[in-house]
Amino acid sequence: MTETIVIVGANLAGGRAAESLRKLGFEGRIVLVGAEKDRPYDRPPLSKKAMRGQMPEEKLFFRPLEYYDEHRIELHLGVRAERLDGTSREVELSSGTKIGFDKLLVATGADVRRLTCEGATLPGIHYLRSLEDARGIRAELAPGKRLVVIGAGVIGMEVAASCREEGCEVTVLEMLEVPLLRAFGRDVGALYGQFHRERGVDVRCGVGVASFRGGDRVEEVVTTTGEVIPCDFVVAGIGVVPATGWLEGSGVALDRGVLVNERCETSLPGVYAAGDVARFFHTRLGRHVMIESVENAQLMAATAVANMMGKSETHAPVAWFWSDQYELKLQSVGAVDDYDRVVYRGSIADKQFAAFLVKGDRVTGVLGVNRLKEIAAAKKLISASIPVVDAMLADADLPMSKVLAGPTPAS
Q: Which residue of 107, 271, 314, 385 has the lowest C-beta tally within 10 Å?
């Protein structure tokens, strides 16, 4: 009997999983379900070149449409998974179709968190998660257009940078005291706030949105401090929530995402999860974590597929994130929420530095701005749990190869 593997989520994790199944020799039926009308594509350019019209859309797609026919991957696009029946082992789609499976990969990712204040449904208020979202924002771009960005997280600040470079007048509103605080900490956030201001972006922290005003579309943003900001359009980036609603009552354990073990297996036999929807048990950290990144989605999909095919592989990556804004390349590796002290190498003022997050004599994470060598070495420091000495980390003239060799009696 032919085995059927259903993948729900035609995104990076889902698309790469389908490809991997064929590469590993799976000859059964593969069904790839996606809520978007577009086939799997690359999301990071959406807030940069793709949104600005500097990249042909065709370059975003991982594979040409013919690939899926040639590799016998059934595409069900523009339909959502509405329900998982764990007993009959069927996925029910919004089209009414029911698809039975032998094994299932949940790769539904996350949905944007939406504003709920007065006027939040006015036309001209955008979010950025999908290619269709990027198309909508691109249609708004023109020199002199007034944009208000709600939320100074990674998406918000990347959108602000891109739109400013397109000549828009940009105001950013952020409830926290500095931009990028949750993702990269106070020092990096303060640096990026100042850098955006130097480029002409009006970054306002400690300020939220009370309401939106307008006729046929948004015309004004009213802040929590009572200010009124005229605008031509708005982009909100206030976070995401795992897309797990369709799994309620299915038998799949949920806790701020789909809970999986180190092999990407859910609580329901034969059902796996990967990408932004999944919280996996990280054997090195000893706890469940969620890593919302391109690299993690790809690696996790590969691990899930390998285990579907009968192997026994563990998913325990060193997390890696990046954000490109103007000429600054911001990267982080490891855990940025578990450390005793911070050791700096390089200069914050010169916008070239690495901030090593250290606990005891081990590096737990690193934040770097335009310091690619330190980021590459940090992955090895963390994964191999190499002991470090603060003075060696801080010495910008000392090659990272020396740090990777570990401390000597003299050091």
A: 385
